[in-house]
Amino acid sequence: MPRPLDARALAALAANPGCRRRALLDGAGVDKGALAEALGSPSAAFGQSQFAIARGNTFESRVKSDGGTELLRLLHEHTGGEAPKDAAVPDLAAAGPEGRAARTALALREATAAGGWTLLDHPMLALEVAGSPAYLEPDAVVVAPDGRWTVVEIKSFPMIDAAADPSKVGAAARQAAVYVLALERVAGLLGDTPGPADRVAHSVLLVCPKDFSNLPTASLVDVRKQLSVTRRQLARLTRIEEIADALAPGASFALDRPAPELTETVESVPAAYAPECLAACELAFHCRDRARAVDAVTALGRGLRAELGGLGGLGGLGGLGGLTSVGAVLDAARGRAGDPSDPAVAALRRAAALRAEALEGAAAGGAVCR
Amino acid sequence: MSLIATLARLEAVETGRAAPLATVRHRHLSERPLVLVPLTTSGEAGAPLGALVGTDREAPRLLVVPQPRDRELRFAFLAELADAVLPHLDAYADEVEAAERNETDPETGKKVKVEVELCADAPQIVVPGRAAIDFVRLLGRSMRFRRTAEQDPDTPHPAPPRVPLLGRWLTHYGERARVPGSALLLAATDLLGRHWATGQSSLEDQHLGALLAWIDPPEGASGAEAALRAELARDGDGQLLCPPAGPATDPAFDNKLLAPAIDRYDRARQALYAAQDGEAADARLGDLTRAEQEIRRLVGEQLRPTWEAVWQSLDLLRELPGAPRTADRWTRDRWSFTAHRDRVRAGEPPQPRRDDAVTAAAKLASRETAQAQLEAQEALDDPLVMAGRRLAGEAFAGEVVDVVMAWSESKRPSPRPLVTVRTDDAPHLAERAKVFRSLDGKPQSAEFVGYQADGALVLRLLDKMGRSKDPAPGSVPEKGDRVCWTLFEHDQRGGPRLPDPEATPWTHGGPPGTDAEHPDPLTPEDLL
Questions:
Q1: pLDDT at site A317
Q2: pLDDT band for position B188 (50/70/90)?
Q3: What per-residue confidence (pLDDT) applies to A2?
Q4: Closest CA to A90 of A76, A104, A80, A77
Q5: How far is A211 from chain B (nearest CA, A)?
Q6: Which pTM does this prediction carry?
Q7: Fold for domain B395-486?
Q8: Residue A148: is its pLDDT beyond 80?
C-alpha cells in the first residue's frame, strides 16, 4: 500500500533537495518509518504526544466554530475589504480523495462566482507530484468577495506578544506554500481571469492561540520564498525516473525482503545525510549510521563540512575535495598524507601544530606566552 | 567554528571521546548554584508539568502539577516554585559592598561619582539546556503580569502572592542569559559544549545525555557508543532509558504512562466530589492521594536522570581551573543582579512586553560589546583559544630577537623602543597597525613598523613604560622573551551614547508611552 505524499513530506523534501534517497522513496510512496525498522535501525518515529494532538484539535474546532465568524474576522482584520457576514460554509463531503478534490474545485468556482465570503473547511486539493497525484488537506481556505483565495493554517503553538517561535512559523510556512501551489493548480484548471498567481494569495493566514489564553490571534505570513523553493523542488522531482534508472533491474523496497537485500537496495541510492535530517526524516538514523561507518565528515554537520571545504581558497582545487573522511583529514593534518604545498593541507598542519602547542603548554602548566 | 575546533571534533571521532576545546574554565561557577530542571506539558504554552529544584544535589525539591490544565494546580506549582527560588535570591540581596558608579548630575550635567551598593555575590541558576532557558523566559513572561488579590481585589483568578515577583526575576535572568559571557543563568549543554568537542554535530550536542556520554563515558564504553545509548536505548516498555532533558517530554512517556495516570487522577477527583458521605469521601481521598503520588513518581523518574546529569556536568567543569578574567565578567553579573534588586525594591513596574526603541538599542549595543569583550578575554585567558586567533591572523606569538632603544621627538622625549619579533604566525598587519600585549593584566600597545629582510616584525612600543625618560623596569620585553601580541583590543568599549528614552526621535517611534502595562486578560478557562 503506497503511502501518499502529504504537505509535510513535500515541505521536508524542499529542506534537503540534494537527497536522492528521500526523493525516490517519497516519490515511490514508501513508508520510510517501516523501512527503517525493516533495515534494523531505529526509526526516528515522530510520535506526537496525545496532549498536543488533543490541544491542536480543540483549538482548531474552536477557531472554526460558529460558521467561522471568528476566523473570517481575523482574516478581514489583516486584509481589509468588505466586512464579513453570512459566510457560506459549503459541504465538501464526497467519496474518496478524488471525489473530495472535485467537490472542492466545484465549491471554489461557485464561491468565486457568488462574490461573498466562503469558508472551505478541510478542502481536498490534488497536486501532481512525480507523475502521481498527491492529495493535500489544508485546515481551511477562505474565498473573499473580491475572488481571492487565502490558505488558513491553524496551529496550536502560541503567539506571545505577537511573536511566535520562528522555527515553527517557518515549518508552517513551508507547509502552507504547498497548499498555495495546489490551489494555483486548481485556479489554472478553472481557466478564468485573473490568472492563478493573482487568484491565490501569496500570504497565508496563520492562526495561533494568543499569549497564554485559548483565544485565537492571527498573522499574515508571506510565503513567496517558500513557494518558489517548493516549486523548484517539485519540478526536480520529475526526474525521479533518472534516479530509478540507476537501480538494479528488479530492485524493490518491499518490506518483506530480507534485511541485507533491502539494505543493499537502499544503499544503491545515494543519500545526502546532514544532522538536520534527524528532525525531518524517518530514515535519518540509518543514514547517520552509514555516514559514520564510512567516517564521513558530513555526519558532523554542514557547517563543519563547509569549513573544511572552504579551505585552500584559490590554490586548492575545491579545497579538501579529496578529504571527505575524518581519517583522511587527520592524516593530512598530522603530515602522514597530502601535499604540503597544497594550501588546504598547509592550513590543516598549521592548525594541528598550534593546537598541539597550546595543549602541551597548558599541560606543562602556565600559558605559552603572555 | 575555527579550524582548531574542527580538528578537535575530528579527533573526538577518532578516539571515541570528547577532545578539549579549552584549557581553563571560561565561565564563573557559583559555590552554591541553584539547579532547576523543568518539564512542560506537551502542546500547552506555559503549562508546567513539574520540576526538580534546589541547591543540594542529594535533596532536590520535586514539584509536580498532577493535572496541568487546572489553573489552581498550576498556581500552586508556581507558588511552590517561588518558595523554592525566591529565598535563594533573597539570600544574596542583602550582603553588599560599597562601590562607586559614574553618573551624570541631572542639574549640572557633570559626571559625578556616586556611592552605591553592590551585592557581594549573586545567585546563579543552572538549567539543563537552551530549551530550558527559553522555558525560564516563558515562565517569567507568564507570571510577571499576573495580579495578586492584594494588588487587585477584583481580579477573577488572583495569583498567589509571590508569583508575579518570581516572574520578574525569571524574566531578568532569561534576558541576562542573552548577554554573551554572562553566568547568572547557565545551560549545562552550553557549558560543556564550550569546553569540549564531541565526535557528533553541534545539533546532536543539544542532547545533554549524549553530550555527557562523549565527555565522561561510563567504564568500558566509548563515548560514541554511550552517546548512542543515551539517545536511543529504550526499555521493554518502549520508554527511553535516558529521558530527554526537557522541558519537552518524550511522546512515548506522555501517551503510555502519563496520560493514563492523569486520567486516573481525574476520575478519582470526580469520585471525591461525588462522594455522598464522610466515610466514602475518606476512601476516595485515599484514591486521589494515591493517583497523585503515582503522577509524582512518574514525573520524578523522568526528571531525576537529568538532575544528576546537570550536577555531573558541574563536577566536570569544576575540574578545570577557572580562567582569571571570569571574575571581571561575574562582577558585571553582580551589577546586573543588584540593579534588578534595586528596581524591584523601588516598586518599579514589571519589565514591559516589548522594549522601547532606546532600551532595545542599548541592549543590543551592550551585547555586542560583551561579545567582543568575551572573545578578547577568552583568548587572553586560554592559549588554546589564542591559538585559534593566531591561526586566523588576529594575533601572533614569537621570540624577541632584538630591542633597540629610541625616543619620541617631543620636548620631553618619551621612550619608544623598537622591538623585533620573530614569529611563525602570519598576522594580517596593515601599515602602522596597532597591536597589544598583556603586561601584568593591563594592555600595552605598540605600532607595527615593518618587516625585516628575514621576515621578522619590528614593533614600536607606545605606552605603559612610566613617565621618565627611561622605561620602567620590566615594561619592555627583553631579547629571548616569548611574547604574544593581539591585533584586537583587550578592553572593548561600547559605541556612542544613546539618547534618553524621552528623547527618542520620531523615526524610532518617539518617546515611549507612559501607560503601565496591563495584566494579561483572563478567560474563564485558559487552556485548551
A1: 35
A2: very high
A3: 61
A4: A104
A5: 8
A6: 0.90
A7: Thrombin, subunit H (2.40.10)
A8: yes
On whether the CB atoms of residues A199 and A180 are closer than 8 A, the answer is: no
Closest CA to B7 of A275, A310, A332, A276: A332
How far, in whole angstroms, is CA A114 from its chain's centroid? 36
Q: Which residues contact B93 (CB under 8 A, 6 or more apart)?
A: B119, B341
Residue B213 has pLDDT above 90, yes or no: yes
Amino acid (1-letter code) at residue B106: P
Per-residue pLDDT reduced to its tens digit, A67-102: 888 888 999 888 887 777 778 888 888 888 889 999
Q: What share of chain A in percent tops pLDDT 90?
A: 16
Q: Which of A25-29, A89-93, A275-279, B265-269 is predicted with the least confidence, judged by mean pLDDT?
A: A25-29
Across the interface, which of A49, A55, A275 has its CB nearest the CB of B201?
A275
Q: Answer whether residue A370 shows pLDDT above 50.
A: no
Residue B390 corresponds to which cell in the numbers above?
A: 593566531
Task: Give per-residue pLDDT as tens, B157-187.
Answer: 788 889 999 999 999 999 999 999 999 999 9
Closest to B207 (Cα-Cα) out of B193, B222, B221, B218: B193
Contact B4 A158 (CB under 8 A): no
Quick one: angle between helices B357-381 and B383-391, nearest 10? 100
Domain A50-235: top CATH class: alpha beta
Distance from CA of A361 to the nearest CA of B (A): 8
- The distance from CA A285 to its chain's CA centroid, rounded to whole angstroms, is 18
Number of residues that this document lists for chain A = 370
Nearest CB to B528: which of A42, A59, A285? A59
| B135's grid cell | 522555558
Helices (H) and strands (E) in chain A, counts: 15, 7
Task: Tell me the C-alpha distance between B382 and B44, whole Å.
Answer: 44
Percentage of chain A with pLDDT > 70? 88
Shortest distance between the Cα of B450 and any Cα of chain A, in A, equals 22
Give one word for B138, left, alpha or beta, with left for phi > 0 and alpha for psi -120 to 50. alpha
Alpha-carbon radius of gyration of chain A: 26
Query: Strands A118-121, A140-143: parallel, antiparallel or unpaired by DSSP?
Result: antiparallel
Nearest partner of B46 among A74, A211, A359, judged by Cα: A211
- Secondary structure, 3-state, B347-359: CCCCCCCCCCHHH
pLDDT at A318 over 50: no
Grid cell at residue A201: 494569495
Any idea where the domains of chain B sit in the sequence?
Answer: 3-245+303-351, 353-381+493-520, 395-486
Which residue of B2, B11, B13, B239 to mutate against A (max A Cβ within 10 Å)?
B13
Q: What percent of chain B has pLDDT over 90?
A: 55
How far, in whole angstroms, is CA A126 from its chain's centroid? 18
Which residues are within 8 A (CB) of B117 and not within 5 positions of it... i.e. 6 or more apart? B96, B97, B98, B99, B338
Phi and psi, residue A324, nearest 5°? -100, -5
What single-letter DSSP state applies at residue A200?
B
CB-based contacts of B492, cutoff 8 Å, min separation 6 = B369, B372, B373, B376
Query: What are phi and psi for residue B445, nearest 5 degrees?
Result: -105, 155
- Nearest by CB to residue A368, choosing from B251, B397, B526, is B397
What is the grid cell recorded at B479?
A: 631579547
* Nearest of B144, B106, B89, B113 to residue B338 by alpha carbon: B89
* Three-state SS sequence of B150-193: CCCCCCCCCECCCHHHHHHHHHHHHHHCCCCCCCCEEEHHHHHH
Chain B residues lying within 8 Å of A355, measured CB to CB: 4, 7-8, 384, 387
Q: Is the pLDDT of residue B321 over 90?
A: yes
